[in-house]
Design a protein that fits this description.
The complex is a heterodimer of chains A (about 150) and B (about 450). Helix content of chain A is about 70%, strand content about 0%. With about 150 residues, chain A is mostly helical. In chain B, the strands form six sheets. Chain B has a six-stranded antiparallel sheet, with no helix packed on it. A five-stranded antiparallel sheet of chain B has the order 10-11-12-16-15, with no helix packed on it. In chain B, strands 13, 14, 17, 27 and 28 form a five-stranded antiparallel sheet that branches. Classes of the chains: A mainly alpha (about 150), B mainly beta (about 450). The interface between A and B is large, with 41 and 35 residues.
């Protein structure tokens, strides 16, 4: 993939990348850093991308890895623990949504953030995370129920 | 607000793409990093064996060569003196070239940190720090340096420090950290963390290890005295004054019939002076070792100034006799009273709620009862109470009545620390009943 092609593709997907990164950190500077890092790593590895039609999926995966790593680091520093798997809706009710999202168990959080901030469908999320669509649907449903969020029709 | 509305608000927060993600900026940033990556890769292979060799023989590796020497450059000294001019003793020391250039640094993800200069004596260490911060810091965030731990590399032991002041990182100036220790240490290893003031902030704190040599230490000047004075029936004696390049210590003892009465003296303010200048207590220096019967008052140094002799004097004493200690707070009437009657200078202000740090990076709400105390002048008294549990909670603030211009102090009591029965609770006062201005001094040397 040539440089021009690479950066054109980045341009078309950077808006989504920024929103996803922002949903992890709620910080413009950290979100920009994560996007920059993902673009840089993508550029270094662009020869590894055999099918350019999957560019967005590939770059978003790089971004998710970076966000998850940085998120885990900042969690240790802030001491904000993830909710246990057994958490109930009523226990989360009084927690602001921003904090509740950050403390969701990672398997739910990732899907919710890709759905609402990335704007991806269930099938697109399944491809991004390389998990079955049924699993995505089940986890999304559970997360929405915990957070008392309503889903508009896809 | 329901959850979906909350979500809409969060989404609106990231709708606008920052300028730093413009296409041409992304291209420029990426290509610059790629060039640097290639340069580092080329050097790494040959440098690798050299680094391994060095690691065997060094305890602490800094990224730039560490050396120490006394600073003699006038422009540098002028700049450093300006930074420490809140303390005349420090300023004197800088002007007399009592500053060591150490020039050590450490690179990190958050910042590259530089320790350029230090000042030290048997009682204090001052660090002049600088940093290149790599991340964009939002305008409402503040970073500060915190000293985590400090070791003496000659003995391998951790150094006990107190009165550590951490300072806000300043972009275009040095950041100062002052530490108090009990003896001088030459070869030092320091763990220093750069972090945000805001516990909810997303900036991840970073710790840097710095090793340096503190430079030569001048010996203190000791003056032994037996100077006594009396304040409101209480007898005291100054036994010794020790003058270090960066501070002065004055040992004061109570010599009345019962030494346990000394804690009735809440505070004393001493000074030293000659015909031209006076040195007093200043920011960062406090009285230490307040044990029964004696205290050590710490004030600005006169090391370089008072070579021909000086006066030591007492400007203020704050007294709280034991019989005035117990206070009753009556929530039914909104009053505070002691065994002699209502504290007329205190009045009920309001009940409110505030968030306080819980020590784990979070803030917890607490119900407060707020009383206000009239202040006679601009240097309003800070006042505290002690709770039944024995804790002190110095929650005070100040306010001005915009209509009358009245200046007063607010004292906030944490409601859940009070044992309240029938609307009444008991605390211990620890603000003064009497403030005396003795106007006492004696010549030394």
């Amino acid at each position: 993939m040539k440089d021009t092609e690479f950066f054109n593709e980045v341009s078309s997907v950077k808006g989504r990348m920024y929103k996803i990164a922002y949903s992890y950190f709620s910080s413009e500077s950290m979100a920009v850093d994560a996007v920059d890092e993902a673009v840089y790593k993508g550029y270094l590895k662009k020869k590894q991308l055999k099918q350019p039609e999957f560019f967005e999926t590939w770059l978003i995966r790089i971004l998710l890895n970076i966000c998850n790593t940085q998120y885990r680091k900042s969690q240790k520093q802030t001491g904000l623990d993830e909710f246990p798997e057994t958490i109930t809706t009523s226990e989360i009710d009084n927690i602001p949504l921003k904090e509740a999202l950050r403390r969701l168990p990672s398997k739910y959080r990732e899907i919710v953030l890709l759905k609402f901030f990335g704007g991806y469908t269930v099938s697109e999320i399944a491809m991004l995370l390389d998990i079955p669509q049924g699993t995505v649907a089940t986890r999304l449903s559970k997360a929405l129920s915990l957070l008392r969020l309503e889903l508009s029709e896809d | 607000m329901n959850r979906n509305e909350e979500l809409k608000e969060l989404l609106e927060g990231c709708n606008t793409l920052p300028h730093s993600l413009d296409d041409n900026i992304i291209i420029k940033t990426t290509k610059k990093r790629v060039l640097k990556h290639k340069a580092v890769k080329a050097l790494t292979t040959t440098a690798y064996t050299i680094v391994l060799f060095l690691a065997v023989f060094t305890v602490c590796v800094n990224t730039s060569r560490a050396f120490s020497r006394t600073v003699s450059s006038v422009p540098v000294l002028k700049e450093l003196a300006r930074l420490v001019n809140f303390n005349k003793g420090y300023e004197d020391a800088v002007n007399h070239k009592y500053v060591t250039e150490v020039n050590v640094s450490k690179e990190g993800d958050l910042a590259d940190v530089y320790l350029d200069y230090v000042m030290s004596d048997r009682k204090n260490l001052i660090l002049f720090l600088d940093a290149d911060v790599h991340k964009k810091i939002p305008s409402n965030e503040m970073l500060s340096f915190i000293v985590d731990r400090i070791w003496d590399l000659d003995t391998g032991k951790e150094i006990d420090v107190s009165c550590v002041s951490s300072d806000l990182y300043k972009k275009d100036s040095y950041t100062l950290i002052t530490l108090a220790w009990e003896d001088y240490h030459r070869n030092i290893q320091l763990d220093l963390t750069l972090k945000s003031h805001n516990p909810d902030c997303d900036i991840v704190p970073e710790t840097y290890r710095l090793c340096f040599e503190a430079g030569d230490c001048l010996e203190e000047k000791i003056y032994n005295l037996n100077a006594s004075f009396n304040v409101r029936g209480y007898d005291y004696e100054i036994t010794q004054i020790r003058m270090y390049p960066m501070s002065t210590e004055i040992d004061v003892s109570y010599i009345g019939e019962e030494s346990s009465l000394f804690p009735e003296t809440l505070d004393t303010e001493f000074y030293i002076r000659n015909d031209n200048e006076t040195r007093t207590r200043t920011i960062g220096l406090i009285s230490k070792n307040r044990k029964t019967g004696s205290i050590t008052e710490v004030i600005e140094s006169g090391y370089y100034l008072f070579e021909e002799g000086f006066y030591v004097g007492l400007s203020k004493v704050e007294l709280l006799p034991w019989e005035y200690r117990d206070l009753t707070v009556d929530f039914n009437t909104g009053t505070i009273y002691d065994s002699f009657g209502i504290q007329s200078e205190l009045e009920f202000y309001e009940e409110s709620s505030h968030c306080f740090p819980d020590g784990n990076g979070s803030y917890v709400p607490a119900d407060l009862v707020v009383f206000k105390k009239a202040s006679e002048d601009d240097s309003a008294l800070m006042f505290f109470v002690t709770y039944p549990s024995g804790e002190d909670f110095p929650a005070s603030g100040s306010d001005i009545n915009s209509e009358t211009g009245e200046h007063y102090m607010l004292n906030m009591l944490l409601k859940d620390k009070l044992v309240i029965e029938n609307g009444i609770t008991h605390v211990q006062r620890n603000y003064p009943k009497y403030i005396e201005y003795p106007d006492w001094e004696i010549r030394v040397k």
